[in-house]
Amino acid sequence: MKKIKSFFAGIILLIIAFVMAFLVALLYRASERISVKTFIFQNNSFANQRVGALQNLDDMSAVNLRNKLIKKYVSEYFRVIPGETDVEYRPVLRDMSSPTAYSQWQSGEAKKIIEMSAKKMFRKVYVSDTDIVAMNMPEGYDYYNATTAAHIFYSVNYYTETWTESNSMATEPIYENGVLYIEVRFKPGLDKSKDVRKYLESGKSPVGLFMFKVTNIGDKTAL
To answer: Which of 12, 53, 107, 153 has a CA positioned 20 to 30 A from the CA of residue 113?
Structure first.
């Protein structure tokens, strides 16, 4: 009787061992198939511009895309980070600018940002859709059907919050507003001359993939 019990106990142990080995194999193979998909969102301090549903580029209007790119440009143009080094080197701003426009920024606003950053100041910039106004758009101009992207001037009203002491909770921000005039060449969609995979793998910002280029910056009299 003991031999029979030992026999069945041995079989049960073998079955348990087999099941455990099978489960371990399944887990190992499953781990090999695991992939992580990353979604990038853009946060904003305005409640109505915070993270929302992902948007398909094909479902976004030309004006909506244009405004998002202009907002990104203005943010890079005025942003101040306390203690930032190499302020005059901003890859995103450079990719969105012509050499002339980038040089204008370096010799102008960048100098102010260097001084502010050295003083440990912090500045944020806000632009709404209604703050972006085309000044010389040709009558009947269509972003989609234009053979070449026209040079169009825009006035952009911007609002800033500046903290003169970034690490002091008692410091109240200084609120200011101004107008930036920019000349932009824009067509909706991605620049087909660029390899999207290689571009993103290089670590560059996705905004550089769009057919958007600021060709001149300044005040109204300069433009």
So the answer is: 153
